[in-house]
Amino acid sequence: NDNNHDNNNHDNNNNDDNNHNNKSIVLELLAHRRHSWPLGRTPREVANNNNKMKKKTKKKTKKTKKTKKKKTKKTKKKTNKKEQEQHQQEQQQHFQSRKPLA
C-alpha cells in the first residue's frame, strides 16, 4: 500500500511539471502575439491611449427647475342683464344731455 502511495505521489509531481511547461509555452505564445501588433502595442494599450487623447468634456451641471407660481385668474363679475341695460340707458342719457359743441 505504501508503495502504491509513493507511485501516485510521483505521478502527481510529474503532472505539475507538465502543467508548468504548458504555462510557459502559452506565455511565450502570448508574448509573440503582443509583438506582432503594429508598434508592438496590444489593442488594449492602443485603446487606452486613444481614450487619453480624447478631449475631456465638462460635465453639465443639472439646472434645478424653478417652479413657476400659478397666476390667479381674475374672474369677471357677471352682471345681471337688467343692470347692464340700466347702465346703457344711463350712458345714453348722459351723452344726450351734453351740450353740442357749437
From TrEMBL:
Compositional bias (Basic residues): 52-80
Spans annotated as Disordered: 1-102
Protein name: Uncharacterized protein
